[in-house]
Structure formats: structure tokens, C-alpha cells
UniProtKB/TrEMBL annotation:
Keywords: DNA damage, DNA recombination, DNA repair, Nucleus. The keyword DNA damage applies. It comes from the Eukaryota. One of its GO terms (biological process) is DNA repair. Residues 137-161 are annotated as: Disordered. Component of the SMC5-SMC6 complex, that promotes sister chromatid alignment after DNA damage and facilitates double-stranded DNA breaks (DSBs) repair via homologous recombination between sister chromatids. This is Non-structural maintenance of chromosomes element 4. The gene is KAFR0A06760. Residues 280-366 form the Non-structural maintenance of chromosome element 4 C-terminal domain. Residues 142-154 have a biased composition (Acidic residues). It is found in: Nucleus.
Length: 367
């Protein structure tokens, strides 16, 4: 439990109404020492009585004293004020632990409080399962009513008879414990209506609704790094071999052998399937429906055939689609002596997919 000092600057405090008005530093220190002595005596009373009103009175006194000395810049004075507040805080904690309630100043038994709390939370459970409670509480109320009537009739004699009063209290305590003992066997979580307890707390408390319950899902735990030691693998070392040295001439020779052979292969298949007089769509000639990379290679080889005047590229007048046909030998000689035009053709994968659907290509022309 902690106490906070009120802010006097927010209130209109008149110096004439303050008992410490006009006091100097030495006088203020003397008042703080007196208050420390009184707090020591209050601790002894707090163990017996547990009266929180004493704490409130002491806090008002120290606030009034602070109103007078708050403008003085003295470290010893401020330290004494802080020490006094700490003592009042300890006194408040001690009073709360020994707090006594009721007219007879009796302490609050934790067993009785838990018993009545279970009774409050088990109401719906008893109604749902048709459980009837033992009517020992009624005898307690009857005993209280009889005692009240006797006090009215013969109040003076009962005040004098202390032994009778103690006996009545013991009887009431026994009846209360017997009544609350029937709730001890209920200890399972689903039996209690926790919503009633939350509603009661919300109604009687003045706390502001918070969202601390949302902090759980957002809490992050630092991941501990685990170091796994891998076993050392010892490989068997074989005989040393020297890598074959590849020169630029070797690369050029392999490329010259590979590319011309593929170009000749494409021309032979075109001549075999359509002949000199036939023609075929460029897309049906180059596109491989199962391989985009192969379609690009076929377009590359076709460009060499057009460059070497082995085939000719011409548009279709009706559809506007480019067609290819084998160029006759006499026309090939004339083209060699004329100017040539260059065409840049771009083939990407989306276009390749659309061309397959457009021309219904299911099998590659070039094998």
C-alpha cells in the first residue's frame, strides 16, 4: 500500500487557517521530530486496533506542515518530510493488516469471507441442480432477534454480564461456521459463476476499465539460441586428377558444330514435311507446346535460315499471320544481291501460352 500527497497548489489554502503558519525552518524540523514520535506510538496502537482513521489524520497534519515549508529550499527539511511520509505509509500498511470491522471491532475471518463468497457465486449452480441448503443461517438470525429483544427489555443487566455476552458471541460464531461449512466441498472452477463476481466488482469499484488482458497474446519471448555440434565428417581422399584445360578455340569449335547442325536439322524437317511448294505458319513451326526454352531455340535457328536465304518469311493477306516457305534457288541468288530488312521478334512466356491456345498447337512441328 502506498500513499500520495495531495497537491495544495490546486486548492485555496489560507495561511490563517493553518496551525503551522509563520513557522521557521528550525520549528518545522522540530514538528517533524514530534510527528515521528507520535507515529511510533501509533504503530503500537495499530497492532491492537487497526484504525485507518489515525493514518488519515497524520496525513492531513503532514500536508498542512508541508504547505508552510514547501517554499523553503532546505535539503534537511525535505528529507524529514519524505521520511515522515514513509513512516505514514508503513503505518497505513500495518493498520490495513490489522483492520477490525463492525461495532464490536472484531477481525474479519478469512474462512467466513470465503464461505460467504462461495455462497454468492454458487447461487445459479444450486438453482440449476435443485440443491437445498441446510437452514442453519435461520437459527443464527433467530438468535440475533432474541438477543435484540432481551437487550431492549433488560439492557442494563446484559451490559453488566460480560460472561453472557461472550457466550452469545461464541454461539453465533459456532452457528455461522456450521452454516458456512456446507460450502467447503464445492471447489471446482465451473461450479462458480465468476461473471457475478466481476459484475459486483465493476459496480462497487471505481477503477477504470483497462486492456491489460490483451498484453498476453502480444508478449514476446526471446528465443534461446541452441548450438548443435555437427559431427566432423572425414572424407576419403582419392587419387589426384588434373582438370582438362578448355581454350577459347575449343568453345568456338563446339558452338560452330552444334548450331549449324541444328539449323540443318530444322531445314531438313521443313523440306521433308511441306516440300518446296508448301508453307506453314511461323508459330506452328517454332513453338513447342511442352517447352518454352525449346521454342526460343527453334526461333533462333529459324532466324539463321532466313538470314542464309534458305527460307522466306511472308505475311498472310487474310489473317496477317507470318508464314514461312522454302525459297527457290534462283530467287535466293537475287536476294543476295538486294538489300535486306531486319525484324526484331520478342517471345515471352505469356505470349507463348497465348499462341498455343490461339493456333491449337498440341504437338511440336520440329522433333
Amino acid at each position: 500500500m502506498s500513499l500520495k500527497r495531495s497537491h495544495p497548489e490546486e486548492e485555496d489554502v489560507e495561511q490563517s487557517g493553518n496551525e503551522y503558519g509563520g513557522i521557521d525552518v528550525f520549528g518545522a524540523l522540530n514538528e517533524y521530530r514530534k510527528m515521528q514520535l507520535e507515529l511510533a506510538k501509533d504503530r503500537a496502537k495499530a497492532i491492537k486496533d487497526g484504525d485507518i482513521g489515525t493514518v488519515v489524520d497524520r496525513l492531513e497534519q503532514v500536508d498542512k506542515l508541508f504547505d508552510v515549508v514547501k517554499g523553503k529550499s532546505d535539503n534537511v527539511l525535505l528529507a524529514s518530510d519524505a521520511k515522515t511520509l514513509v513512516s505514514i505509509n508503513e503505518l497505513a500498511e500495518m493498520n490495513v493488516r490489522n483492520l477490525k470491522l463492525g461495532e464490536n471491532k472484531s477481525t474479519l475471518a478469512i474462512d467466513d469471507m470465503m464461505g460467504y463468497l462461495k455462497k454468492f457465486l454458487l447461487k445459479e449452480y444450486f438453482d440449476l441442480n435443485q440443491i437445498t441448503l441446510a437452514d442453519t443461517q435461520g437459527s443464527l438470525e433467530d438468535s440475533n432477534e432474541d438477543g435484540n429483544e432481551n437487550e431492549k427489555e433488560d439492557g442494563d443487566s446484559r451490559r453488566q454480564d460480560v460472561a453472557t455476552a461472550i457466550g452469545e458471541r461464541f454461539k453465533e460464531s459456532t452457528i455461522r461456521k456450521n452454516y458456512l461449512s456446507q460450502f467447503q466441498r464445492y471447489d471446482e472452477f465451473p461450479q462458480f459463476n465468476w461473471f457475478r463476481l466481476g459484475t459486483l466488482y465493476t459496480n462497487v469499484s471505481k477503477s477504470i476499465s483497462a486492456t491489460d488482458h490483451l498484453l498476453g497474446p502480444f508478449s514476446l519471448e526471446k528465443k534461446v539460441r541452441t548450438i548443435n555440434k555437427k559431427p566432423r565428417v572425414i572424407e576419403n581422399i582419392g587419387e589426384m586428377t588434373r582438370a582438362e584445360k578448355v581454350t577459347r578455340n575449343d568453345l568456338n569449335q563446339d558452338q560452330n558444330v552444334t548450331t549449324p547442325e541444328q539449323v540443318k536439322k530444322c531445314f531438313k524437317q521443313l523440306n521433308k514435311k511441306i516440300g518446296v511448294d508448301g508453307r506453314i505458319s511461323l508459330f506452328e513451326f517454332i513453338i513447342n507446346p511442352t517447352s518454352f526454352a525449346k521454342s526460343v531455340e527453334n526461333l533462333f535457328y529459324t532466324s539463321f535460315l532466313i538470314k542464309e536465304n534458305r527460307i522466306m518469311l511472308e505475311p498472310d493477306e487474310e489473317q496477317g499471320v507470318p508464314y514461312i516457305r522454302i525459297r527457290p534457288v534462283d530467287k535466293a541468288k537475287k536476294v543476295n544481291n538486294s538489300n535486306q530488312n531486319h525484324i526484331i521478334f520478342q517471345l515471352d512466356m505469356p505470349t507463348w501460352e497465348k499462341l498455343k491456345l490461339k493456333f491449337n498447337i498440341t504437338k511440336s512441328f520440329l522433333e
